[in-house]
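Sequence and fold
=================
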Amino acid sequence: MTLWLDADYVERESGLTTYGYLFPRESLASKVVERIKAYGFKEPRIGFERYFVDFAVYDGLRQAFPEASFTGASDLFYRLRSIKEPAEVDLLRRAATVACQGMEAAVESVRPGVTELDILAEAEYAMLKAGSGGSSFRPQVVSGERALLTHPCASNKKIAAGEVVVIHLGATYEGYCAKMCRTVAVGEIPLEQERVYQVLLEAQGRAIAALRPGATAGEVDAAAREVVAKAGYGDSYLDLVGYGVGLRQSEFYPIIGKGREDVIEAGMVVDLLLPTIYRTGIGGPRVTDVIYVGEDKNEVLTEYPRELIRV
C-alpha cells in the first residue's frame, strides 16, 4: 500500500501487487483495512514489527479488527532475515566497500582545527559518489571527551591535538546496510587510552574468531568480555557488543550480548564490536566491523586497517 502517485512505480520496481490510496479521502490505514477485509478476514491475527508502523495505522487497524488478536512479530521477521541469500551478501559487500571509501575520506581529512562536521561532510560525499543510497543511521564523528557519549552526532567542535577522533559511518546499497567504526589519534594521546584501544581490538579479534556456526551469541560475547575483564575494565563495559545487519543497520537477531542464547548460523551477517571502555579520560576509542559468517571461515566485509590510526 502506498500513495497512489507512487503505486505504479513501486509495483514496477518491486514486482509486488501494489494498491494506492487517494489522500486525503483515503489513508494508508484505511487502505490496509480495506485489503485485509477483501481477503475475507474478520478477526485476523495481525503481527507488528518493532518499528515503522505509526500510531495512525495502528489506530485504524484496532478500530476495524479485535485488538486482542494483535501480536508482536519482530522476532519472526528478524529471524527470517538473519540468514542472507548469496545475492543479499553481494549487496552487503557493495555497501561495505562504499563505507570503507567513506572512512578513507574521513581519515584523510582529520587534522587539528577542522570540525567534526567537516570530517563527516568529506565522508558522506565520498560515499554518495561511490554509490551509497545514504547513511544507514545517524553517522558519528566525535572527538575528545565527546567520544564517551553513547549515541553522539557530529558537531562544530574543532579537532585538537592530543585527542582521539571516533568515526562511525554507515552506507547503503540497494537497501542493504553496512557500518564501521575506526579511531584516529591526533598526535600523541595518553598511553592508557592507547591501551584501551588495543584491548578493544584484541576483544574484537577474539569475538570474530568465536563467531562460528553453532556457537551462541553469549559465547561470542564472552570471548570479547574475557579480554576486557582481564585488562581490568570489566566494570566499564556494556552488555551488548553486536547485532545482525541487513535491511537495517541493527537488526535484533542475532543480538551479540552477555548471556544471549541466539545461535549463530552460517549465512548470518553481524557487526562486532562497538562499545568502548566507559571511563573518563581514557575511554572513547572504538572499533566496529561487519562480518559474514561462513560455513568454514568468516569474511570481514568492511576490510579496512583496524590498528589505531595516527595523524
Notes: The helical segments are 4-14, 28-38, 55-64, 74-82, 86-109, 116-129, 191-210, 217-230.
